[in-house]
Prior knowledge:
Chain A is α/β, with parallel strands linked by helices.
Amino acid sequence: MTKQVKISEAVVRRLPVYLRYLNELSLSGVQTVSSQDLGEKLDLNPAQIRKDLAYFGDFGRKGVGYNVSYLIEKIRQILKLDRPLHVALVGTGNLGRALCNYNMYLKENMKIIAVFDADPSKVGTVINNLTVQPTEELGATVAEKDISIGIITVPAAEAQNVADRFVAAGIRGILNFAPTVLRAPEGVRIHQTDFTADLLSLAYYMNNDNEDTTRGTVDDEPMAD
Amino acid sequence: MTKQVKISEAVVRRLPVYLRYLNELSLSGVQTVSSQDLGEKLDLNPAQIRKDLAYFGDFGRKGVGYNVSYLIEKIRQILKLDRPLHVALVGTGNLGRALCNYNMYLKENMKIIAVFDADPSKVGTVINNLTVQPTEELGATVAEKDISIGIITVPAAEAQNVADRFVAAGIRGILNFAPTVLRAPEGVRIHQTDFTADLLSLAYYMNNDNEDTTRGTVDDEPMAD
DNA sequence: TAGATTGTTAATCGATTAACAATC
DNA sequence: TAGATTGTTAATCGATTAACAATC
C-alpha cells in the first residue's frame, strides 16, 4: 500500500490548517468530523481534504468520518510536531518581538530558544525570557542548542546575509519575513512570508468594477524611452 | 488586441515582487532589464515573467528588454498604487504595532490611517502618530475617511467578528493575520497571511532523509476509537 | 438493511515552461 | 546584418474536483 508519490507543497501547507481546526473541535469535545464538515468550515473542497489525508494513510472510517483526536495525532506525526523543534530568530524589531511573544508554537513543540540582533544596543536586552545575543554568536549557538529552523526579521538588505549565516550553521529551514527573495542551496527550505506583497496585491482588486482586468484596462501607449 | 482573459491570483501576487525589485534597480540607476535578469534574481522562469506582464500590455521591446522606470509606472497603474489607498487596522498587540510602524506602504500610496482596539486600556494611546480608537467607531471612521482596506491583527476568536464589522462598513479588501479562516461575501477579498501555517509546515521538511514522505513514513495502525 | 462517508480513479481545470517567429 | 529578447502559441505539468465503488 506504500505508494511512492511526492507530496506537493500545497498539501503540506494545508495540514497545519486542518490541525488547527481539529484542535478547536477537540477542545469543544467533538469526537468525529467528516470531510464535508471540514470543507465547509475551512472553505475547501471535501474531496481535496480526503485526498490530502489519504496521501499519508487511511485515517478515516467509511460511513463515519475521522476521529478527531486520532487525526490530530497523525497530522502531528506527519508534520514532525510530535517532538521538540528548536527555532532561532534574528532581528528584534517590532515584528521580531511580536513573534517572540507569540506562543502558538509552544503547543506544537516548536519554540524560539535563541534571539539575535546586529545592533549592539539591542544585545543583552530580554524578550520573553530570552536574552538577545550578538549575531556573531549565531553559528555557535545553533550548533550548541540543536536549532533546526531560523526566522529572519531583519531589514531586506541584511536578510540574505543572515540566511547565509543560518545555512553555514547547518540550519534546515528558514522562515523569511524580509521583503526580498532569498536563495539557499538544495536541502535548505525557505518559506517566504511576504505580507507586503499580500497587501499590495490586494490593491489590484479595489474599486474594480470590471472584476476581470485585462489589457484594455491599462492604456498601452508606446513605450517611453 | 484587448483579450478578455481573467488574470489569475498567482499572477497578481507576483506583480508586487516585480515592482519591489524594479524599484531597487531604479535606485541603482539601472535603466533596462530583461526577463532573463529578473528571473535569475527572483527565482522565476523568464517565460513566466514575460507572460505575466503581457497580460497587461506590451511593455517590453524585442531585442532590448524592459525599461525599468516605464515598467514601474505600469505595474503601479495595474495594481492601482498610483492613487492613495486608505487602510484601517484592528488589534494593537505586538503584531499590530509592528505593522503600524512599518513604512513600506507609504512609498506605494498605501497608508494606515486609523487604528482600533477593543481593549479600553489601549484606546487613546498613540502608535506612530495615530490615536487608537474604540472598535465601536470602526464603521463611522471607515465611511468618513474613505477607507477601503482593513488589516486584522486580533486574536483568532475575534477575527470573524472584526471582519463582519469591516464588511458592514463597506470595506473591499481584508488582510487577515489571525490564524483562522475568515468568510466574507462576494465582492470582499480576503488575503490570509497565515505564518503559523508557514512555520508549522516547515517542520515537515526537517530531518527528512527520505525527501519524499509517503504513506510509508507514517505507520498506519488501525484507527483507534 | 439503508444512509453516510471514505479512499481512489478519472475528468477537468489551470498554471508553468519550452519553443520560436517577430523584430528591435 | 547578427545578436538579443520579446510576445505568444503549443506542450507539459500539476493540482483540483467529480464521481463512485467499497464499506462502515
